[in-house]
Amino acid sequence: MTQYRRLKGTHDVLPEDGLKWIKVENEIHQLMQVYNYNYMRTPIFEKTSLFARGIGQLTDIVSKEMYSFTDRGGKSLTLKPEMTAPIIRAYLENKLYAQQSLNKLYYISPLFRQENPQAGRLRQFHQFGAEALGSPNPTIDAEIINLALSIYSSLGLKNLTLKINSVGDPICRIPYKKTLQEYIQPNLAKYCSDCQKRFDENPMRILDCKNETCKTLNKDAPKISAHLCDDCKIHYTQLQILLDQLNIKYELDNNLVRGLDYYTRTVFEITSMDLGSQNAICGGGRYDLLAEELGGQPTAAVGFASGIERLLMVMEKQGLLLSEEERLQVFLIPVGEAAQQIITEWLYKLRNAGFRTDMDYLKRSIKAQMREAHRQKTRFVLILGDDELKNKNFSLKFMDKNEQISVPYEQLISFLKSNSE
After folding, report:
1. Residue-number span of the structural domain to which 405 is assigned
2. Residue 233 belongs to domain with CATH number
3. How large is the average pLDDT for residues 355-367?
4. Contact indicator for 44, 73 with CB cutoff of 8 Å
5. pTM for this structure?
6. Per the domain annotation, does 175 fall within a domain?
7. pLDDT digits (tens, 9 = 90+) for 26-51
């Protein structure tokens, strides 16, 4: 008989890891709401043209990595490989701009890219991110960066590096692209095939290449910072002033352009020394042209995205995933048939009171049930036998101290609450 296995580039979140995901996602939800960002979901698949038009035909995502298929109606659909284009599509389609001038949105979502699986990079992966739509002010750029760093700080992450750059706008990029092409042209044949394809239409993407030969060739490439128009210079300078005011440390990285075509002005990455060469856990920037490219009115926009699997890798290496929340609080053991009904009633009373509670469903011996309670790192075991039934109390065992006392029914919940803090 065939034994099915998970597909390459996917993974199962098993019970021992489930609470780690819940911890991270709960922290994301909490911080996003503190910053007044509102939760959104979009469909798992969209029209292929949304990504081809929004992200760019020459990006690796569109040209190499998308999971696209033709449905029974003949439409070309794609499992979403990123979230910004779907968020903008939903923003335009649902006319969120008519409800308020500034929309602050966030998401947690599975995404799909058919790339070569490696540590922290899967074919089905998960991202969280935030998008602020409607303001061209660098203050919102600083808020987006601060939001990402605040989430990491709340999770306890250390040794992170923030890198920022400005990629200008269409006005100042035109002369810069020409200057960059003049620099690259003499050595174009030495660049990788992807960079050669990008040379005519999007030479700035060549600066983003991870090929070691290309990185060496780009070492002395002209910097866009020297070609920014006055408006882009002012925006970039103001962002740095704001980050300084917030005491956020950062590095200026002239070769940082990010991998998507829709970025304008601000781009940034947050990296961790615990991830090796592929060390980015977060990336983002401003994309003021995307809404218009997707058929809407010009809309100033800025956002970030962060991979959850990569975040968990960093947390694991920094010893941040150990949690007392994984412990079972109460395990109930009935002794004899008469106690079974009362125990079942108390099971749900304790759950309704908010205690993580369980009991045995396999009719095992008392000794085996105690072993199960120990396996689940239970804090309290409640035993109910004939004597306890007669006196209307529980024998309560402190598993950490190996002590046992009697607690009357009417005092049980208050006793557990006072001893669980």
Report:
1. 327-418
2. 3.30.930.10
3. 94
4. no
5. 0.87
6. no
7. 999 999 999 999 999 999 999 999 99
